[in-house]
Amino acid sequence: MAKKAAIIGISSILLVAMVVAVTVSVSRNNSSSSSEGGEISTSTKAVQQICQPTDYKEACVKSLSESAGNTSDPKELIKTAFNVAVKEISAAIQNSSLLQKAAKEPRAQDALENCKELLDFSINDLQNSFDKLGSFDVTKMDEYMSDLKTWLSGAITYQQTCIDGFDNTTGDIGAQMQKLLKLSGELTSNGLAIVTELSTMLGSSGLPSTTSRRLLSEDGFPSWVSDGKRRLLQTGNVKPNAVVAKDGSGKYKTITDALKMVPKKNKTPFVIYIKAGVYKEYVSITKQMSNVFLIGDGPTKTKITGSRSFVGGYNTYRTATVSADGEHFMAKNLAIENSAGGDMHQAVALRVSSDRAIIFNCQIDGYQDTLYAHTHRQFYRDCSISGTVDFVFGDSAVVFQNCKFIIRKPLDNQSCMVTAQGRTDKRGATGIVIQNSVVTAEPAYMAVKGKFKSYLGRPWKPFSRTVIMNSQIDGVIDPTGWAPWAGTIHLDTLWYAEYNNRGPGSVQTQRVKWRGMQKISPQAAASFNPSKFIDGNTWIRTAGVPYNP
């Protein structure tokens, strides 16, 4: 009882801290505001205060003042901020249909079609954030903040991906879409800024972390894990819901047919066992397909392959051989390939936008843009990823543990970049973390490596963040370590760190001296462990895969 009372006491204090944080600050400023002559309403003061940490204050104040009525409740104001952003994105979706009628170029038409899906996903992340705010539970504070930051970062990324789809198109349709999304982008960024400020405020409150108690039931599993899922995760032999086999020995011959059996918004694991064979198909785990597990006979036995590419007429977002949008996606013992050659430019093998996705013992092969770690929280363990240009890219919060990154022989005029991280907001809870892994090259590259240069990465977007730590870096990486994107763009705002690596490619003496390069302490490095960076203890530990928190 004493323990329970202590938890309730801490919960009450934290809840009060969240709900009144803004109004306390408003009260402190009350006398100074009044002394300046103008009586400012409590609601106006609350709006001004809650907008204080944002980058787009004018948009924040205007949108909340017009939509929030007379409320001064910070919780309601934050929910209002999310709602206004949703309305703006919904308006952009409607206008995109009008733009599509005006667009004559096929690639621009495809980009607009993609935008409808991407903006729906952005709305979904904002709605999740709204719902999370309404179900605030301070006994789950760390998970709560991780979720909010993840989904708001995802909402920003989806809007940016929509805009990116117009690269290499002609006409002004892309510029018009960017204009339509300007306000919604600012409002979403503001929402992330407000939540980040709240998280910082609660983190500095001196109250104990709720991590150790959070979500755990008596058997050690998080409380959100259903009994059926616990049984699945606790057993070595998984009984599949569907069996796919090329030779007809399973119920289905294609993975796509098996996926048709997944119930919408599935709450329990739906396991699809894919027998050995080469499956030439494009596999889509849609947003409605939650908890899908794809399990093969091994990465040298079960392969899913496709060849869509940018040169072949597809937007990069649509080139993926396998795409996963539904939450809690897991792939195990598989190979996934995009067989389009390097001369076909962007050609994604695997795109993951799933939240809390796990990829274990998989081989992911391609050339340019092999792995699109697009959005949300992702964990890769014991995988190999091969490619040439930007072959791990995206704006998820992703940790690679015990993985191998294999540089392939590029075209004669190309250099190779392992990563191209795409964070566009300085508060985004995203980044690429490579831990206890190996960066190396295939034999075909090694035979001619003097002809080419390879780098650990380059900054795709302004606040690109990549951390490589405790890893083996072979002598295939140029001594400078990192490449610019174009001239000096993003070099001051990127966030790159190397920590405690080994191997000839890890030597720091000739590394680039950009302002964004970081030297981090052991404590700072620990913040990028999966338990901290992607809140991994609440979802990876239960998944039956090796995991070093």
Automatic annotation (TrEMBL):
<keyword id="KW-0961">Cell wall biogenesis/degradation</keyword>
<comment type="similarity">
    <text>In the N-terminal section; belongs to the PMEI family.</text>
</comment>
<keyword id="KW-0732">Signal</keyword>
<keyword id="KW-0378">Hydrolase</keyword>
<dbReference type="InterPro" id="IPR011050">
    <property type="entry name" value="Pectin_lyase_fold/virulence"/>
</dbReference>
<keyword id="KW-0325">Glycoprotein</keyword>
<keyword id="KW-0063">Aspartyl esterase</keyword>
<feature type="domain" description="Pectinesterase inhibitor">
    <location>
        <begin position="42"/>
        <end position="194"/>
    </location>
</feature>
<keyword id="KW-0134">Cell wall</keyword>
<feature type="active site">
    <location>
        <position position="390"/>
    </location>
</feature>
<feature type="signal peptide">
    <location>
        <begin position="1"/>
        <end position="21"/>
    </location>
</feature>
<dbReference type="InterPro" id="IPR018040">
    <property type="entry name" value="Pectinesterase_Tyr_AS"/>
</dbReference>
<dbReference type="GO" id="GO:0045490">
    <property type="term" value="P:pectin catabolic process"/>
</dbReference>
<comment type="pathway">
    <text>Glycan metabolism; pectin degradation; 2-dehydro-3-deoxy-D-gluconate from pectin: step 1/5.</text>
</comment>
<dbReference type="GO" id="GO:0042545">
    <property type="term" value="P:cell wall modification"/>
</dbReference>
<comment type="function">
    <text>Acts in the modification of cell walls via demethylesterification of cell wall pectin.</text>
</comment>
<dbReference type="InterPro" id="IPR035513">
    <property type="entry name" value="Invertase/methylesterase_inhib"/>
</dbReference>
<dbReference type="Pfam" id="PF01095">
    <property type="entry name" value="Pectinesterase"/>
</dbReference>
<dbReference type="InterPro" id="IPR033131">
    <property type="entry name" value="Pectinesterase_Asp_AS"/>
</dbReference>
<protein>
    <recommendedName>
        <fullName>Pectinesterase</fullName>
        <ecNumber>3.1.1.11</ecNumber>
    </recommendedName>
</protein>
<comment type="similarity">
    <text>In the C-terminal section; belongs to the pectinesterase family.</text>
</comment>
<keyword id="KW-1015">Disulfide bond</keyword>
<dbReference type="InterPro" id="IPR000070">
    <property type="entry name" value="Pectinesterase_cat"/>
</dbReference>
<dbReference type="InterPro" id="IPR012334">
    <property type="entry name" value="Pectin_lyas_fold"/>
</dbReference>
<dbReference type="InterPro" id="IPR006501">
    <property type="entry name" value="Pectinesterase_inhib_dom"/>
</dbReference>
<dbReference type="GO" id="GO:0030599">
    <property type="term" value="F:pectinesterase activity"/>
</dbReference>
<dbReference type="GO" id="GO:0004857">
    <property type="term" value="F:enzyme inhibitor activity"/>
</dbReference>
<keyword id="KW-0964">Secreted</keyword>
<dbReference type="Pfam" id="PF04043">
    <property type="entry name" value="PMEI"/>
</dbReference>
